[in-house]
Amino acid sequence: MKRILWSLLLLSLLVLVTSCRREQRGPLVPQSSEYLQWERPIPVTLDFPIPGHEDNRRRIYINPQGTEVRIESRENRVYWEYPEGTIILKEIIAGLQGEDTDSPFQITAMIKAPADPQSRGGWLWVAKSLDSGEETIVDWEFCFDCHSNANEPHPYGDGNPGNEFRDYVFHPYRRQ
Amino acid sequence: MKRFVPLTRKINLIIISSLVVGVGIVIAYFAYTQNSSLRETSQGNLRQQSDILFQSIKNAMLPGEAPIAVQLFEDIRLTNPAYKIFLLRDTGVQAFSDNSTLEVVNATLGYQAFAPREVFPQNVMVMEDDRNFSRSVRERRPVLFQETVEGKTFFTIYKPLLNLPKCSGCHGSTHTVRGVINITSDITPVVHEQRNNVLIASGFFVVVVLILTLLLSLYLHGTLIRPVKHIGDVCATVTDGDFSVRVTVPNRDEIGALGETVNQMVEGLYERFELSKFVSSSTIQSIRDQEKGAKREMTLFFSDIRSFTSFSERNEAEKVVDSLNSVLNFQTQIIQGNGGDVDKYVGDEIVAIFSGDRKEEHACLSALEIQNEIMHNRDRYNGLTVGIGINTGEVILGMVGSQKRADFTVIGDHVNTASRLCGRAKPGMILISESVYQRIRDRARVKGPYRLKVKGKEKFLSVYQLLAMKRRPK
């Protein structure tokens, strides 16, 4: 009888611990050996200052899923929709001046995951420090608010003069 | 050995622990969720307000209507004194307190789009050494925290106003945070409400636990503890030899069934106790030991009333039975007092057995005491006398009889010899065999030996008449 009671108690504790344990994510940002094989929506290194990245250069990559972006027109507006699993990755390189071979100090990434509770606008916004290797999911306004401007006319890239819904992407992928 | 812990204490402990844990968890959960809900509601309200302000400022700024945003803050402060609302620059200085931002905008645009202001607010707010403010600017995220100042509790939020792409046309692209919205709300009433919730829940908890403990204790006392104690008392009384008590438990449950079982057990014990008077100790012992049969050396004691047949013919049956029982009764008491065991009564004859190292001595002492009693109390026994024969030897003990009716008794040649000696003993005489004599010779006074021819024996037996015996010093 005692053994049964102890077993039940242990089982309850196990259930409690298991249910309370936060689900651990694996790494979200791919390794450079992987993303360097991807296409680049804009082939040049962006070297003008912008809020959020300030005086740092950016190189942008998109994974193969992202190249399957769907573009359709609904109610007199053009909608861009990147498929789930799309990763748009930005290498952040210190300073506005430098060589193309300079290494980044940070990676930021947009990962299309509409079902994820931490997603905003259907994207997970992730920043990875290459010094510490730590990944941070930016689930507050910061990235999202800025990228919301991509869905209306803005000062970057083609400027979205047609007020298209660009799915929060300033430099949309266009097939060559 | 484990310490005796009363059942009452154990049950009360279980009840109180269960109630404290069970009710405690429920009430603690209730109080916790209530307070969490209050706190989250307050925080949510604050976040919403900061979001509304954020959108208001953003939309007022875009068309270059900064004065509208300034007036909005002033109006909110005046309308609700419980709120402290400010828009701060990322340096911590209150926005619109001078023309510096306006000058940056004009410079970025390349022309004087906005005329410098000449009137500035009094008592300009400056945020100094506030780590939450610094964190909000550094991490570019809202920071919400609670603090207590002079007995009052406040929720404060710092929400960064980002330099969005559409803002950068006027404000430039070199910075990310344009300013920080700061709202401080006095939540002292909410904290009081939280404390009252906890106090009320605690009071409720104590009252509920006390009432439930009392009710459950009373119920369990009536249905479990009292009946169990009653059954225990009955068992204790029976152990002391009183078989008249019975369990009276009205419960129609396991306890009631236990009471009935105990009553049946007491009745059974009583019957066995009464029956044991009619069964020899050796029989009882053999039943306990589940003996089938064994050879033992024992001293056989036969005592027979002399001329009992003629006595019974001369007297009424009632007197005969009374006299017989009287003689058998005192002999039995003497035999048992000397450690002997009455094996059986055969008419007016007693068959007893003695065992142990001093069996011969005990048997002889019993015989002398019996003859002495009769000699000094002839009238009490209506002139009846007895002859006694004692012999020692190996006998067979065993359950003799049928499956329906059996006696645990002794059989064998030495039993017959003792019986023959008894048969040859005259009134008041004690005859002992050679084997008995050899064991008591240094303490006994005897006559003999006599050579005696008995039935069933071809050789003469060497026998002695026991006259007296020294008792061992105690």
Description of the structure:
- The complex is a heterodimer of chains A (176) and B (474).
- Chain A has one domain (28-151).
- Helices cover 18% and strands 24% of the residues of chain A.
- Chain A has helices at residues 2-20, 32-35, 141-148; strands at residues 56-62, 70-74, 77-81, 87-94, 106-112, 123-129, 135-137.
- In chain A, the strands form 2 sheets. Chain A has a 5-stranded antiparallel β-sheet, with no helix packed on it.
- The termini of chain A are far apart.
- With 474 residues, chain B is an alpha+beta fold.
- Chain B has 3 domains: 7-193, PAS domain (Beta-Lactamase, 2-Layer Sandwich); 241-278, no CATH class; 284-469, 2-Layer Sandwich (Alpha-Beta Plaits).
- Helices cover 51% and strands 22% of the residues of chain B.
- Chain B has 13 helices and 12 strands.
- In chain B, the strands form 2 sheets. In chain B, strands 5, 6, 7, 8, 9, 10, 11 and 12 form an 8-stranded mixed β-sheet that branches. In chain B, strands 1-4-3-2 form a 4-stranded antiparallel β-sheet, with helices on both faces.
- The longest helix of chain B is centred in the N-terminal third of the chain and has 55 residues, at 7-61.
- The radius of gyration of chain B is 55 Å and the shape is rod-shaped.
- Chain B starts with 6 loop residues before the first helix and ends in a 5-residue tail after the last strand.
- The interface between A and B is medium-sized, with 20 and 16 residues.
